[in-house]
Amino acid sequence: MKVILVDDECLALDYLERQLVKLNNVEVLGKYEDPMTGKERILLDLPDVVFLDINLPEVSGIALAEQLLEVRPELNIVFVTAYDEYAVKAFELNALDYVVKPIHPERLMKTMERIQKRLDSFAKDKERTVQLVKNANEEQHLVLQLLGQFSVEFSGKKDAAIRWRTTKAQELFLYLLQHREQLVRKSILIDLLWPDNGTEKIYAQLYTTVYHIRKTLDQFGKCFHIANTTEGYILTLNQVVLDVEEWERGIAAAPPLAAATLAEYEKAMNLYRGDYLKDYDYWWAESERQRLKRLWLNTSYRLEAWHVEHGQLDKAIAGYIRIIEEHAQAEEAYFALMQLYASKGNHLMVNQQYSALTAVLMEELNEQPSAYITEWYKEWKSSVSAL
């Protein structure tokens, strides 16, 4: 286990080093009193663990840890502090542990055991991921993109085409896909696809359509299976990746938003390429489309608020612009842009955002912007005119 120590107290560094070298399988790569030198060596030498004093000159240990975790999110950081009160802040930053000076050997041993368990777990996860990728390469697998423009990737071949015999077959398949792994009653499918037809020949049309779907899906091997029961159909998937599931799972599994986890959020959000089945005007898809849209919007607003709070204004501006591109009536995004541009002294862009919001609301909803936005805009114009 490779370790680097950063503390402005020389005696504390020497003491901690002596305690660490007594333990098995620990190599101290270096110890640094200057935090900037320590940061440089950490990024160059790539230790497994950093022991970091919280009370450092020039920059706090908390701030230095944030900078390190932005570059190396997997880095194990142990804070060294003379005060228990820093513990809460340390764990908010996702630090692995903290130790209080003077450091007792028993406490240090427990910390190192915890770190070793985490390193072992990380190694196993990495090995498991490599094996999954290997298995996926050996077997046929399919990726369906349902967010934004519908597309198919089969066994590494992008833009694999699905040529449906009829539009009914396409819609029926997508409906079964939305309700995958569930029993969909035949009566529901008939009401959905043939609402105005008599029942005499309608079941024959349903059976024919399902037959065409099965024939179309044959090209994908065992990826799809449509089971027929007396009451309805069940679509099951095998070796099929749905981007909508991957995206929603990534959002749900993401840890609390922080500098160390920002990359995970941005990666997950980038999987959202547009509204669910956006090119298909199916009324039955609308509720799912709106649910996913709300989830994306709420997460986007949280992400951009975090950027603003941490002074990353240009990132926040880019994020709010994307929100507007995806959802033209997003008043809060326009308002946030107005405030950000005002803080930068960009009067032209403040006016442009308000004008754009007013125009889109009038055109699509025949409404004016919300009162609080209009009031803020008037007050801002007055303050600018007074300068």
From TrEMBL:
Pfam families: BTAD, Response_reg. Keywords: DNA-binding, Phosphoprotein, Transcription, Transcription regulation, Two-component regulatory system. One of its GO terms (molecular function) is DNA binding. One of its GO terms (biological process) is phosphorelay signal transduction system. Gene3D superfamilies: 3.40.50.2300, Tetratricopeptide repeat domain, Winged helix-like DNA-binding domain superfamily/Winged helix DNA-binding domain. It comes from the Bacteria. SMART domains: BTAD, REC, Trans_reg_C. The modification 4-aspartylphosphate is found at residue 53. The keyword Phosphoprotein applies. Residues 2-116 form the Response regulatory domain. InterPro entries: AfsR-DnrI-RedD_regulator, BTAD, CheY-like_superfamily, OmpR/PhoB-type_DNA-bd, Sig_transdc_resp-reg_C-effctor, Sig_transdc_resp-reg_receiver, TPR-like_helical_dom_sf, WH-like_DNA-bd_sf. PANTHER family: TRANSCRIPTIONAL ACTIVATOR DOMAIN, TRANSCRIPTIONAL REGULATOR REDD-RELATED. Belongs to the AfsR/DnrI/RedD regulatory family. This is Two-component response regulator, SAPR family, consists of REC, wHTH and BTAD domains. It comes from Paenibacillus algorifonticola.
